[in-house]
Amino acid sequence: MNQAELPALAAVVQDLHHLAQAEKSSVQQLADVLLRDASLTSKVLRVGNSVYYNPAQEPIRTISRAIVLIGFDNVRLIGLSVSLIDGLLGRAPSEQLYELLARSFHAAVQARNIAGYVLTKNQEEVFIAALLYHLGALAFWGCAGEQADELAVALARPGINEDEVVREVLGTSFRHLTQGLVKSWNLGEIASLAHNTANHNDPAAFSVHLGARISEAALEGWDSPQMEALVQQMATFTGITPEEALQQVLDSADEAVKVAATFGASSLCRLIPSTDPELIRTQQEQRKARLLQPDLLVLQQSLQDLGMMVSKRADIGLILDSLFKGLYQGAGLERVMLAVLAEEQTRFKVKRAVGEKTERWVSEFLLPAEQPEQPHIFSYVLRHKEALWMGVPASYNLNELVTQPIRQWLGQGMFFIAPLMAGTRQIGVLYADSRISGRALKHEQFVAFQRFTQLTGRCLEALTRK
């Protein structure tokens, strides 16, 4: 990509970034970089003359005048942003590229405005690091040609794991591609740290990370559970109230639309989620309409099927099909997971899961079966052979068994959990929740959950007698 596809863009980005790191970068050095390309110069001047950057509307006709009026860092940021747009959209842009570039501009504005609460400088660096947060994917969708078409088709298949599909087609992940380009282009510490931060140790890097996640969550709706959690995180990080944090997020989205238009990328504006109250209300109504609803007919049919399998001694795959169909489509539980004892019964590993964003559970979830120093709810229910409804007053005394690693995997809120036994043999644990929508669980769902667990256990016991 550096040598064949993006050499001009890489050179400009590197030069502009090096100017930020040099202690005595001069106005002339910045002007020299931009003046190498007459088209880039004219676009920087046009952006510099925009109401967004120059509200007083003082005429700017030279790069040096732009630097004096709107600042060295702003001119450098404009140059880099315009170069990115020209370098990528100047080809035959795909819809994937448009969407990702829109998300990148949205993330950049969110990150810079978050950084404004916790940093006294480096806000432009945060903007650039967030803009380039998905650099690998941007570069791929911008210049991969037929391979991009192949990946687009593969990603359109329902129920796929996006990371796995990307690895199959590219031989690497977008994340590793980004890290490689960030290192190759020498984009500095903030851009590197942003991909490796899960804590608040570096406020600049965490601002980038948070801005990127907010831009992704916005696509799910401003009222989505993901956005709610990120707004709370932002409030804690910046020291403002959740209400103020949400307002800041919405204001930043509006600003991102202006920034994209100012940089000459008005085609991206339609892809940044609107903050119009009427539209948000419509989105909320549409979201409610999409929510998984219980289906009594499916529920009864699945129970009947399992009942028949007790005497028929059915295949394990058919048993699990009926179990998951009954709990997911029948009882309307949004996420269902079976974690079985594996590796000589030393660990819980996910055998099957269904629901939005549960793919990672199947490939990565691991939990030690016994942890004397930190007992947990999975081992507890298996040991006590008891189905539990966590998150209601009757189970508050067991809350400490929902350990931090479990919360990181499953989130917070109500859930059902029950032991799965084949007679006296311990198979694993069945888990279910409705955390996608955040809806409270219901008594009828818990009754169904218990009944399905018992019937599945009887089916498995019949198999062991086969």
UniProtKB/TrEMBL annotation:
<protein>
    <submittedName>
        <fullName>Signal transduction protein with HDOD/GAF domains</fullName>
    </submittedName>
</protein>
<feature type="domain" description="HDOD">
    <location>
        <begin position="6"/>
        <end position="201"/>
    </location>
</feature>
<dbReference type="InterPro" id="IPR052340">
    <property type="entry name" value="RNase_Y/CdgJ"/>
</dbReference>
<dbReference type="InterPro" id="IPR029016">
    <property type="entry name" value="GAF-like_dom_sf"/>
</dbReference>
<dbReference type="InterPro" id="IPR013976">
    <property type="entry name" value="HDOD"/>
</dbReference>
<dbReference type="Pfam" id="PF08668">
    <property type="entry name" value="HDOD"/>
</dbReference>
